[in-house]
Write a structure and sequence with these properties.
Strand order of the largest sheet: 10-11-12-13-14-15-16
Number of helices: 1
Number of strands: 27
Shape: globular
Largest sheet: 7 strands, antiparallel
Distance between the termini: 27 Å
Length: 319
């Protein structure tokens, strides 16, 4: 027993208490809730019969009255500066919420990727038929209200995130017949590429809030490549983490992880300090997260998740 406790303390894997949480929505409501930029509330899509009309609603992070924030359904940018409305054809309309001014881009309904200031965006245009892994995809960037510019061509991939105002993180193959994809940075002004990693595919790619690190998983590849990895975006060797599961950045330094487990028990929340390379067990949820639906507030102080127990959104304050 003493040996077990000592090992647990050294690895940070000691069992911690259940983290207190509270439901902020009821009636099995609502999947896909996201945090507002100020971390004070969550936004979610809802409508009749519970609400009077379909729209984007908001509820305070501590619970309380639900109010309608947006009367129209759209993809709202992370900073809530823009509403993105894909059309039925080539064009997507982007509307600035502050004044209603709009412009269009020929995205074919594809997602757009915003830079932090939401003054630039990137998107991909791919063939609409054929094997995804072999489809040619062109990557475009644009300033808001500006004309798009083609910056790269890949197969079976596209832009993932802006690392800064001139550097994109992109994934894709160099030829249709290639086996492996590259995860690379792209200077959109010069076209210079830096390959960070090559593998069969990359999943759950997430860039730290400061753009300095990227975490990703590799699966169905060789034993040497599979796993959860952490890597500097400026280059440098990838580091395979000792844990595996669902993860989210809490801030530029700390990565939260729910380890994969098959015993059906409550999900445990662990935290990696990437600078100190130390793991801490924050506690368990006393519950499970349904459909990987969990979010960290932008200030890194709270966590929301869709409860597998009752289907409601719950919020807890992170230790």
């Amino acid at each position: 027993m003493i040996r077990f406790l000592l090992a647990a303390l050294l690895t940070g894997s000691a069992v911690a208490a259940t983290l207190p949480s509270q439901p902020i929505l009821s009636g099995s409501c609502c999947p896909g809730a996201v945090w507002t930029p100020d971390s004070q509330a969550l936004l979610f899509l809802d409508g009749p019969p519970v609400r009077g009309s379909t729209g984007i609603y908001t509820v305070p992070a501590g619970g309380g009255a639900v109010t309608r924030r947006f009367s129209t359904v759209a993809f709202y940018s992370p900073a809530l500066k823009w509403a993105v409305r894909p059309g039925t054809g080539e064009s997507t309309t982007l509307a600035r919420l502050s004044d209603g001014k709009t412009f269009t881009l020929p995205t074919r309904g594809g997602d757009v990727v915003w830079n932090r200031a939401e003054t630039k965006l990137a998107y991909a245009r791919s063939a609409t038929t054929g094997n995804y892994d072999r489809r040619v995809t062109r990557v475009f960037t644009a300033d808001v209200f500006g004309a798009p510019k083609a910056v790269a061509t890949v197969y079976g991939g596209g832009p993932i995130a802006w690392l800064n105002d001139r550097t994109l993180l992109v994934s894709g193959k160099t030829t249709a017949g290639a086996r492996d994809r590259d995860l690379f940075t792209l200077d959109v002004q010069t076209g210079a590429r830096r390959t960070l990693r090559t593998a069969l595919g990359f999943r759950s790619v997430q860039v730290s809030p400061d753009g300095q690190q990227v975490a990703y998983t590799i699966s169905f590849d060789s034993a040497a490549r599979n796993g959860l990895w952490l890597q500097p975006t400026a280059g440098g060797s990838p580091k395979r983490l000792t844990e595996f599961g669902a993860f989210l950045w809490r801030d530029a330094r700390r990565l939260l992880l729910i380890p994969l487990r098959v015993d059906g028990g409550p999900h445990v929340l662990r935290q990696l300090d990437t600078q100190m390379n130390t793991w801490t067990t924050l506690g368990d949820l006393g519950d499970q997260v349904r459909q990987a639906d969990w979010q960290v507030s932008p200030d890194g102080q709270r966590l929301s998740y869709l409860s597998a127990r009752d289907g409601n959104v719950r919020v807890l304050r992170l230790p």
